[in-house]
Each structure stands twice: as C-alpha cells, then as structure tokens.
Amino acid sequence: MTTVMVIEDEEALGLLLKYNLEKEGYNVVWETSGNKAMASVEKCCPSVILLDWMLPELSGIEICKMIRNKPDIKDIPIIMLTAKGEEEDKIKGLTAGADDYVTKPFSVPELMARIKTNLRRAPELLPEKEYVFEDIRMDLVERKVFRGDKYIHLGPTEFRLLKMLMETPGKVFSREFLLKNVWGNNIYVESRTVDVHIRRLRKSLNEYGPDYIRTVRATGYAIDANTANEDGE
Ligand code: CA
C-alpha cells in the first residue's frame, strides 16, 4: 500500500486531505507539527509527502531541507502546499528541494493528479528494469545477462542466484539465505547445491571478464569488485 504523509497543522484541511486520500486507496499518516513530522517521515518512509509551508516548530522549508539531507529519505517526493499568490515562497520551496507545489485553495482532483505524477517520478517506486554491476548487465524484463556486449547464457537457477547477488552488490549472502530465496522453502536441497550452482555461474560469467563473485569463507557469496577470494577458490 502506498503511504502518503500529510504534514499540515490546519485541522480542517488535514481532515479533508486524509479523507480524500484514503478514498483513493492511500494509507495516510498525518502530522501537525514539524518536529513530530521529521521523526515520523523516518519511521514510516512515505512514498510522497504533502508539506504545508507554515507549521509550528519547523517551517515547511526547514523540513524540506532536512529531508533532502538525510540519505535514506532524501528521494521521497515532496509536494509543498503554499498559500495563494506567494510566488517567492514557491521558488524558495523548489530551491529547498520540493518536487512540486499546489496553491491553496486547491481542488482535490488536481491534488490527486499531482500526487500520481510525483509518484511516477520517484524511481524507487517503479519496478527495476535492469541491474548493472561493473561490465555485467542483467535485463530483468527480457531475463537476459550480458557481459560487455556478449550475451551470457544462464540456466534459471544461475539467473536467480545472480539476480540475488546483483540486487545488493557487496552484500554477503549466506548459503542458507540463498537456498531459501533462490530455491524456495519447499524443496529440500543441501547447502553444497549452492556451491555447485555458483561454480556454474562463475564458469559462464567469467568467460568474458574477471571473477566478481566473492567466496566468503564459512559464510556465503557476494558480488564484489574486490575479487580476492578468502578461501582461494
Ligand atoms: Ca499551516
């Protein structure tokens, strides 16, 4: 469910927004003050924020700047709600990192349309189309892997393994985790099976470039540009 955070101290407007957003199927978190809002943004990680300009404690613009400076929340689209005719405020808001603004009083359909547009613009909400690591490119739509311009043929298990590794480069995945997430819970396979398929994956991938799969002794595997294998494999 997509969460919209409303940061608005005016009760009538907050209620109106909450009612209409919920009617559209959004989950709504409504905050009425600056300090609480900041803590709440970090906790709820909303998909879009409707941010009022004039708020107690912190102004909308201060909140906007704070959000943009926090790595884990900085990409959340922010729509500023500004009072009519305050051109200078709009410019300040956009400079502070707001993605869009609507002028009060606004029509509900207009605001809903703006929310949809801004959600589309947020890259993390769109499904990933490809993963890239160094010269390895995985096309998730066509389910094909390339190294440079060379097509790499992988079996379905090797494909899923590589996909898991490429989703978070550098992260070490344990054999148990890979078994559960690549093979699924239902099938009984030994942890050695992971090693067998990693070997196959390496063989196919390394035909056209260096070995980026790192074996971490007694733990598992990662995809990593630092290819020094701890077990010398
Ligand atoms: Ca206000």
What is the arithmetic mean of pLDDT? 86
CATH superfamily of the largest domain: Response regulator
Number of domains: 2
Note the overall shape: elongated
Could you name the ranges where pLDDT drops below 50 across 5 or more consecutive residues?
Answer: none
| DSSP strand tally | 12
Order of strands, widest sheet? 2-1-3-4-5
Amount of helix: 25-40%
Distance between the termini: 44 Å
List bound small molecules. Answer: calcium ion
Offer a quick outline of the entry.
This protein is an alpha/beta fold.
Outline the secondary-structure elements.
Elements: E1 3-7, H1 11-23, E2 27-31, H2 34-44, E3 48-52, H3 60-68, E4 78-83, H4 87-95, E5 100-104, H5 108-121, E6 130-133, E7 136-139, E8 144-147, E9 150-152, H6 156-167, E10 173-174, H7 175-183, H8 192-205, E11 213-216, E12 220-223
Parallel strand pairs: 1-2, 1-3, 3-4, 4-5
Antiparallel strand pairs: 6-7, 7-8, 8-9, 10-12, 11-12
